[in-house]
Amino acid sequence: MLVVPGRKTDVKDAEWLCQLAEAGLLKASFVPPKPIRALRQLTRYRKSQISERQREANRLHKALEDTGIKLDCVATDILGKSGRAMLDALVAGTTNPEILAELAKGRMRTKIPALREALEGRFEPLHALLIGAILVHLDFLDEHIDRLSDAIEEQLAPFGAAIELLCTIPGVQERSAQNIIAEIGVDMSVFPTAGHLASWAGQCPGNDQSAGKRRSGHTRRGSKWLDDALKDSAMPAIRTDDSYLQALYRRKKPQLGHGRAIGAVKHSIICACWHMLSTGEIYNDLGGDYYTRRDPQRQIRRLVAQLERLGQTVTLQEAA
Question: Is 209 part of any domain?
Answer without folding.
Answer: no
